[in-house]
Amino acid sequence: MAKPVVPDPRRTLTLRDVSEASGVSEMTVSRVLRNRGDVSDGTRERVLEAARRLGYVPNKIAGALASQRVNLVGVIIPSLSNMVFPEVMTGISDVLEDTGLQPVVGVTNYLPEREESVIYEMLSWRPSGLILAGLEHSEASQAMLAQAGVPVVEIMDIDGTPVDSAVGISHRRAGRQMAEAIVAAGYRRIAFLGTQMPNDHRAKKRLAGFEEALAREGLQLADREFYSGGSALLKGREMTEAVLKRSPDVDFLYYSNDMIGAGGLLYCLDQGIDVPGRVGLAGFNGVELLDGLPRRLATMDACRLDIGRLAAEIIAGKRPDGIVGGEIIELTPTLQPGDTIRKV
Amino acid sequence: MAKPVVPDPRRTLTLRDVSEASGVSEMTVSRVLRNRGDVSDGTRERVLEAARRLGYVPNKIAGALASQRVNLVGVIIPSLSNMVFPEVMTGISDVLEDTGLQPVVGVTNYLPEREESVIYEMLSWRPSGLILAGLEHSEASQAMLAQAGVPVVEIMDIDGTPVDSAVGISHRRAGRQMAEAIVAAGYRRIAFLGTQMPNDHRAKKRLAGFEEALAREGLQLADREFYSGGSALLKGREMTEAVLKRSPDVDFLYYSNDMIGAGGLLYCLDQGIDVPGRVGLAGFNGVELLDGLPRRLATMDACRLDIGRLAAEIIAGKRPDGIVGGEIIELTPTLQPGDTIRKV
DNA sequence: AAACTGGCTGTTAGCGGTAACTTATCAATC
DNA sequence: GATTGATAAGTTACCGCTAACAGCCAGTTT
Lengths: 344, 344
Prior knowledge:
The structure is a homodimer.
Chain A lengths: L14 H8 L3 H9 L6 H14 L5 H8 L4 E6 L7 H12 L5 E6 L4 H12 L5 E5 L5 H9 L4 E6 L7 E5 L1 H14 L5 E6 L5 H16 L6 E5 L4 H15 L5 E4 L2 H13 L9 E3 L16 E2 L3 H12 L12 E3 L4 E2 L8
Parallel strand pairs in A: 1-2, 1-3, 3-4, 4-5, 5-11, 6-7, 6-8, 8-9
Antiparallel strand pairs in A: 10-12
Chain A binds a DNA duplex through helix 2 and helix 4.
């Protein structure tokens, strides 16, 4: 029967403790705990029992140093609070789950210098791979990533040149597509409402694509309004009110994300404005949240789950055909017309 | 002038490379890079220049093993996607920022066995501390935490016995308080709408406190409805419809979180139901999202930012008076009556 | 019977840093 | 001029674990 163990509270346990408690060498304990190499059933049992009894937790720091292998994948994203990255994380976790790899999240708050230090910090732990949002990074960041010697996957966006691999959609094209759909539905006085953030490159690209497509139709933005910080839903309301007051003849509002779009929708409904007759509305992302709105907001899903999945597959070396790196995967977002664009 | 460096792409750089490139010992390089000990300005310059030129990134694995110090704080939470934890994370990051400590997030999806393995995984990296949501953990988890030899802070909840320290609110009391306010406002036929999850202990405690306070007034729940999964906003709508159809005489709906509460609110407004006259509504959390709703939902803020801050301060040893551990900090949530409870 | 398996276990030498100590140098002090 | 103390380096010995290899002992194989 297991003897009562009085663990010395000051010292943390090592392999040696387990090896002494079970009467075998440290190496054998190591083998048992990692399920590697041949160990007889009897020995395995004794070792496991001892480890359990002592409450031994292996020291991965030492293990990683010795084996030169770290089962961590760094995931670097701009923000946790905007509903888009949690889903990406889900995709990543799903795939990594059964590879022995573990995601570690770092947040940059859309600050390039913060991104730089997060990258540095992550690389200093020698992860098996890095997944990071966006293609725009400081020069120093790019250099670090290129030197890192591990797979790097840049996600969300493919309008640009990745350091290594990329998985995402073309935001430029997404903007274009939305503009085309809006114009095709007969809207002509179109306004843009979006975020101020200078480092939200993807929103900027969508806007650029959007304006480009409008220009091709001989149109230009009738108005624009920006915000930063605060409750997105509330900001959506406020901006919508501002635009409609300032430019009463505007007939479409294109929002840079679904959350402010939802705020705008609620405002219009409050005011009894005919949607999509008097004004049409569209957002971007396809967040689940929208399902519960009084009316379904037109949007474009950003393939977030798939992006996470594919990125993780590249890191885990699970992509078919042994493609090693330098892969660029473009996903195609689909327009969800909802109920806020006139049917043609 | 800096010689062009042709880094061997197969081998990752070590201190030795920098030491050779700058003509000093590894130890001196180590000192420069960590800003520790006395190094002459000239040497410091040369070392930094060499490190920069080579693109050297220190190996924290080796550093941590040698120094027995890891600047990581594990943060274990049930989910990223419910708006409550991002704010906790913000509080944690704020405080940790200037302590040299770095948060590392792990997600359990409300699964105890998953929590167990996340704890194990985290402890195997020998972090400087652990912050985890909730007081309910498997026996094995508790044992690991108790043995870990690092500060452990359990957050969000204080109705129970923490392993070490705890920072949170009393959900039982929060539920009671809300019930009292509702009854005081004159509502009598009260329904509860909430999550199904057996492991959302905090929601359960709120409900328990709620029912307890009702009982004290000689009341009991008129109806209840549960959901799991899916878009919370949509579920809020559906559940509200179901309850109001099934129990037309219900005059108050208490939701276990703001998101489903918002869905319920939108439903009622759609249906032209008089809120708060015909039915009153209340949620829980005080999420920012609510600011943009057509009407402000009654709720109770959960002090998420402060919880994060205080937890991080405990880990960082920043708490006043040198309290070392075993601290229990109870925060007091405030009722935000909004516009969905009748004024008395 | 010698040689050869294959299964199981132990030994040795690091992994890349850092703590703690030692050594050289040099100006200031007595 | 010898002593001291501060400063700026270098040396040595690990940190806890694993890769690689070596040993040993049945049970074949020839």
